[in-house]
Amino acid sequence: MKPATIASTLLLSCCAAAAAVFPSDHDLRIPTSYESAILGRRILALTPLGTISTVFPKDKPSHDDVAAEERRPAGLDGMPYGLMEYISDCEDDNLGNPTILAITIGTTFRNVAAGSNVSLAVQWTPPHPPAKRIESTQTQNKRRSWLSYLLPGLGTNEKHHDATPLPYSAANLPRFSLLGHLEPIEGGDDRQGEVGSRLARCYVATHPDAKYWLPGNHVHEAHFVRLVVEQVYWVGGFGDRAFIGWIPVEEWQNVTREEWQKARLPGEKKGWKEWSVWEDL
Ligand SMILES: *[C@@H]1O[C@H](CO)[C@@H](O)[C@H](O)[C@H]1NC(C)=O
Ligand SMILES: *[C@@H]1O[C@H](CO)[C@@H](O)[C@H](O)[C@H]1NC(C)=O
To answer: Where are the strands (E) in the chain, listed by range?
Structure first.
């Protein structure tokens, strides 16, 4: 078997243990946790979306009008709840605490108001698809969509079933979870003040539509908050070439702007290969 075939067979049958035989021109050196922190800080700076998870508080006898209005069921006490939120990296202390515009009425922020900690999951999404993909034997021989397995009668040459839903291996790319709590940013809601006006400018540069719900808008109560990062869990990709584990929070905070600005992530440049290691980027 060709190395690529072996690798993809193993990739299909299972995961990390197989990684040691993946083809590479290099002796792979796994980045340190600090090098991973640099990549993570760049991902945070370049990524406008994340999933914030909180935990529902103990049920109170419901005098909560909002809960009634949205028909919240009873018995959610302690349930985790995660949903996409806008994020940004707007504070100038450069400590890697994400900036979030909290809409008071949102479930995430009501859970926080009731005492919940938060975790924020962020994944790297490459702006360009790879020129050369990690492929399975199956897709090398003939591309078949998942639908054609369910409905074998379907012709395999139908155009709209040809493309794979994701043009890159997401499992091979970095993602992380920032664990901590939310706190108000002093002066953040004062649009005339130095801090508040700068935050609003930075946030709207990332999220133009958010100009309608900046602090002081007439629709929803909103406040700029920071996620105070207390712990960082990192999965850099496949374990033979990426660091997987906890990054000490001091390392996360220590990364300088210059360091993350110089770093490069997979897919920032056109024509990248999925097998390349971080030093090639
Ligand atoms: C939030 O996390 C801290 C640990 O960082 C913990 O001490 C505290 O009890 C947590 N709060 C809740 C409401 O679980
Ligand atoms: C953070 O940076 C300071 C100052 O450069 C250094 O003394 C410290 O060892 C660093 N800590 C970590 C965990 O990298």
So the answer is: 49-55, 80-86, 99-103, 118-123, 175-184, 222-235, 244-247
Q: Model confidence over 165-218: pLDDT tens digits?
A: 888 889 999 999 999 999 999 999 999 999 999 999 999 999 999 999 999 998
Residue 66 within a domain:
yes
Domain enclosing residue 252, as ranges? 27-124+169-280
Using CB atoms within 10 Å of the CB of residue 54, give its burial: 0 to 12 exposed, 13 to 18 middle, 19+ buried.
Answer: buried
Element (H, E) at 203: helix 194-206
Instruction: Name the closest-CA residue to atom 1, ligand 1.
Output: 117
For the chain, what is the domain count? 1
Q: Is 157 part of any domain?
A: no
CATH of the domain at 272: 2.30.110.10
Q: Is residue 274 part of a domain?
A: yes
Ligand minimally distant from the alpha carbon of residue 254: 2
Ligand 2 mean position to 250 CA, how many Å? 7
**pTM for the whole structure:** 0.82
